[in-house]
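FAQ: What does the model actually see?

It sees only this:
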Amino acid sequence: MTKCPEDPVLLLGLPLGQYHCPDCGCMQVAGLPHVCDPDSCLLEGCDCLPPGVTKSPNLVAWEEKG
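And it is asked to produce this:
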């Protein structure tokens, strides 16, 4: 499984609060550990997904649209 490379902890002290992770698309808060939502993650094979699942429902829907 792939771990999202974004590290919001590195943004501590910057004039930034909540933001969408540029890699997985999940909402993050600057200065806190990365949190990934298995229902909305856009990173294929992310380690937040249940065993045996490679795409979140959000990623499947995103690919079907496009």
